[in-house]
Protein 1
Amino acid sequence: MEVNLQKFENKNYQEYLEFYNRVHPDNQLGLEVLKETEGRYSAGAFMERYLLYSDNELIAATSLKQDLNKSSVVGIIVNMIIEPEYQHLEKILFTELLKKAQKHKPDYYKTSVRENWQHELDFYLQNGFVEIERMWESWLDLSSFDPKAFDWAEPKALANGISFKTLADFEDNEASQRMIYDLVSELLADVPHGEELEIWPFELWLERFWKGNLRIDESMFLAFDGKQAVGLSMLLKGRAADAMGTGLTGVKKNYRRKGIAQALKLQAAKYALDHGFAKITTSNHSINRPMLSINEAMGFEKEPAWVYLKKEINN
């Protein structure tokens, strides 16, 4: 059977979103977050999405995205979403997708699936992909969260000479941007990853993160030792209207075990509560035990893990 994949256009966003949420009801997407995330590819990276129809009904969607975490090599993230009754087409779709990828001369392919999406997981494993890491996505139900249980954290941090601010306390200028970028770069380099992470250059970070629409200055919480930023917890616009999403949370090595991370997480939870949100989401590498422990103590409940897979190409 031949397939005729149509190039995705802006007019297809709502149709695609409804299709995705129907096929994967356990991983709902919101339009604003989807557009914002994909907008990062306008800054020197490629992304292609294709749609497959049967009798004018969308039955499959595929995509090729450049791996934004690597610049020294070309990695392509491949993805296929298929209506269950049409899963017999996956091999044909996959072959066609890789044909379209060849023009980019990739060094490897990556993909990710939920661990309970057994059919998809088996397909990639059978086609040369190997697992490289797992990420836990967790939810905190704010209706049952008791902030008082963690009131010890901020006094402990204050007793260690730490002060707290939000990004809203600073002017939006290069000095503030550099402060956040330098802190994020240092913290990211110390986060456990399945693979070595390449930090974006400052100008690229500005385009892909700072100029985006997910950041909320009032919910970017910072810890300081004097004038030095030593800790951070980002609370961003979430995938769903009633949820906020956690970005990077971390504390510099020399400032750990002082209650700082817990205090930052508590400030974030109180912000979400005060602004009427029902949930907070977060994602953590399965090997990041310290942060997982903090989230578990706060009551975050794990969803099935995301399994990240990779296929090296011998060019």
Protein 2
Amino acid sequence: MRVTMIGSGYVGLVSGACFADFGHEVTCVDTDAGKIAALKRGEIPIFEPGLDDLVSSNVRAGRLSFTTELAGPVAAADAVFIAVGTPSRRGDGHADLSYVHQAARDVVAAIEGFTVVVTKSTVPVGTGDEVERIMREARPDADFAVVSNPEFLREGAAIADFKRPDRIVIGTEDDRARKVMEDIYRPLYLNAAPLLFTARRTSELIKYAGNAFLATKITFINEIADLCERVGANVQEVARGIGLDNRIGGKFLHAGPGYGGSCFPKDTLALIKTAQDMESPLRLVETVVAVNDQRKRAMARKVIAACGGSVRAKRIAILGLAFKPNTDDMREAPSLSIVTALLDAGAEIIAYDPEAMASAKTLMPEITYAPDAYSCLDGADALVIVTEWNAFRALDLDRVKAALRHPVVVDLRNIYRSGEMHERGFTYVNVGNA
């Protein structure tokens, strides 16, 4: 199949490379000439484990290419995927669909013959209807079908998620479009990946509902962690105890500083706005968003308390800046709120992250960045672990203690054992343990 991907960001690049690896002929189109030039040189603009090798191998095989020219690839395509950004709209929190709408206009001007136009971007319910309206008004003669096919990729595990998905959701009631989508995903279908066909609006809502539910699980266990600290319970054991119930499951029950990233914050907010517009408010999701925002600031207060009630003129070492490990994504990262609050309280911040420092420097230019974890700790009054990179899970604790001015460790990801840390002489504070 001939596939054209509009947008070579996180979703477009990962999806395009994976489709090419299935044997399809894929062209990624982007308006950013610099990004396309870098991709042609073999430079990957994001950090995603395994993506550089996947892209380079399929470029060498002639199945994957990059261009700024849209017309030719769209005219030749059996399916055109729209994978452009849908950030929160400034001022009201609705999803900004301007990039999606512009892509629709550009695509319909170039299609030849029957073409399936697929919204891969995360979009509110009814976006497919609007995309179809825009395209039909622009070219009443065009032969196409608009399909919803939301992505379910976790940053840091995106390739595995694409190739071994829990499900593939496709929103269409057009028989010709269904056949094209079945052919595109046939390599996964043969491996028994569930292919779920729904109405288009249902497919759009599945994406938002899934993200909102996962955000709710995270926020739920974080509030249980606060209660554990008050009553003398252990949140990790509580999470395991409820997670063993197969009706609940153990995933997304890890207490921490709150969720961030490119999906949960903007998608929960967009879902709330859609529900309010439809006069069917989602009070539970509204509370999840509010609690999560408050939690990030509360983590800074935890650090201040661990430092004796004040961090003024104290040097605080931060390990981990990205919103999660195995990514360089700083969007809505808890570290942003935590660092800002500590700076406001008078602290001096030095930080290290294996991949996210280039992005972090543009967002937090006022802090110091260390070349490695141990350099970050040198002379600090406290260590704060914000992101659970594997490189931080087995630090040389004797070296850590020797480097710190005061042996204070605030572990916001619970990657160390409280008993062992206390035995080694640390003032150790984690999440969800008294």
